[in-house]
């Protein structure tokens, strides 16, 4: 674990005691939840339904925190796996999952880092592969290497159908500089200083689209939420704009060949059904 990742781990462990304890935190979580639920069809996932006959729909909640994404999308999937580098966040996630009636095999979180040089063998088994959807909720700007994050998460998706969703902020570099200065002058006792754990001051659409395409994803989609995210900190009110980005994992080489062969068969069948005068036969 790098020094920067370790700083994040410690900061979120310290934050866990007060996480989601303030009205603005609840409002922000609800804002993200509503945005995802309202755009379920747009996300492009085949969600579970009552008449699906037991089809498994798998969600990977990465940098899961206490489970805001899980709460938002849990009703539409059958299996949920959370991963976070913070032991305390994972503990609170599992407490919430159990209190909501979820069995561990249905929904649970573990401590882990998919971006480390050596990924834990615990995360290499089938239980952490072939997800229908993976989501990072407001954690992407904390990642040391966003390109690696997208690549590693894309590898965990089902080829051709698996979707990666990232919810984060548009650029806020000027605000971040002011926030760091304010934190040094007026430390906040009720909300720990998190500015040193932020690696990237937001992302543009162009940056995200390139990251997605370079990471092996296609069908890029983008939404900017109309309402600002408002954070009421002791150093002052912070406002940021939230975006949702999505992309679907590209087919494997075999999948591309299969798709090409299928299209050729369809084309040949259409040609063979034509009458000599160009009309389709009966």
From TrEMBL:
The keyword Transferase applies. GO terms for molecular function: transferase activity. SUPFAM superfamilies: S-adenosyl-L-methionine-dependent methyltransferases. Keywords: Transferase. InterPro entries: SAM-dependent_MTases_sf. Pfam families: Methyltransf_23 (PF13489). The keyword Transferase applies. Residues 178-197 are annotated as: Disordered. It comes from the Eukaryota. This is Methyltransferase domain-containing protein. The lineage of its organism: Eukaryota, Fungi, Dikarya, Ascomycota, Pezizomycotina.
